[in-house]
Write a structure and sequence with these properties.
The protein is mainly alpha-helical and 175 residues long. The protein has two domains: 77 residues, 434 Repressor (Amino-terminal Domain) (Orthogonal Bundle), CATH 1.10.260; 84 residues, Arc Repressor Mutant, subunit A. It is built from nine helices and four strands; from the N terminus they run H-H-H-H-H-E-E-H-H-E-H-H-E. The strands form two sheets. A two-stranded antiparallel sheet has the order 1-4. A two-stranded antiparallel sheet has the order 2-3. The chain is elongated. The N terminus and C terminus are likely disordered.
Length: 175
C-alpha cells in the first residue's frame, strides 16, 4: 500500500482527509471552486481543486504549501494538526488549545492582546512553567470575540505564529 492511500484514524485515505480540510477552508472563505480559480488568476483550476478536495488527485508538499498560502492558513491545519472540518456546516476546533508561550512572545508585536490574556491566565492559575499554557474553549471564544474574528480564524492565526503546541485530536463543534 502506498503512503497516499494509507488510511487515517477516521478510515479515510490521507489524501481524502487533506481534501476534506481543503474543502472546509474553502467553504469557510465562502468561495466556490470557480471563485478559487478566478481569485488565483487561474493558478488553481476549479477542476484541480475539486479533485484535490475529493482525494482523487494527490498534492505534493510544495503544492499543498502554495494552497495553504493562497487560503492564508497554516499548512499544519491542512495536514490535520488543527482540524477545521465542517461536515455539517459548523467549524470544529481542538477540544484543548495548548499555547506555546515562547512562540507567542516572539510574535508579541502582532499577538499582544493574546499574550496579555495568556499572562492573566498564568497569574490566575499560578502556573509558572512559562513554556506552554492550556486554554479552554471559553478562552478561545473570548479571545476571538475580543479580536473580532471567528474561533477557527483565531486558531489558524495562532498556528501561523507557531504558537500552537501539541494540539489534540479530540474535536469540539463551534456553533
Amino acid at each position: 500500500m502506498n503512503e497516499a492511500s494509507e488510511s487515517t484514524e477516521s478510515g479515510l485515505p490521507f489524501s481524502r482527509e487533506v481534501g476534506v480540510r481543503l474543502r472546509a477552508v474553502r467553504r469557510q472563505r465562502r468561495m466556490s471552486l470557480d471563485d478559487v480559480e478566478r481569485a488565483s488568476g487561474g493558478r488553481w483550476s476549479a477542476s484541480a481543486v475539486g479533485a484535490y478536495e475529493r482525494g482523487f488527485r494527490n498534492l505534493s508538499l510544495p503544492r499543498l504549501r502554495e494552497l495553504a498560502e493562497f487560503y492564508d492558513v497554516p499548512m499544519a491545519m491542512l495536514l490535520g494538526e488543527v482540524d477545521v472540518r465542517d461536515d455539517d456546516g459548523k467549524a470544529k476546533l481542538p477540544a484543548k488549545v495548548i499555547l506555546d508561550l515562547v512562540a507567542l512572545e516572539a510574535a508579541a508585536d502582532e499577538a499582544g492582546p493574546i499574550l496579555r490574556y495568556a499572562k492573566s491566565i498564568v497569574l490566575d492559575r499560578g502556573d509558572w512553567n512559562g513554556r506552554v499554557l492550556s486554554i479552554r474553549h471559553d478562552d478561545v471564544r473570548a479571545l476571538a470575540s475580543m479580536l473580532q474574528m471567528d474561533e477557527a480564524d483565531l486558531v489558524a492565526q495562532l498556528g501561523q505564529w507557531g504558537a500552537l503546541s501539541a494540539p489534540t485530536n479530540a474535536l469540539i463543534t463551534v456553533a
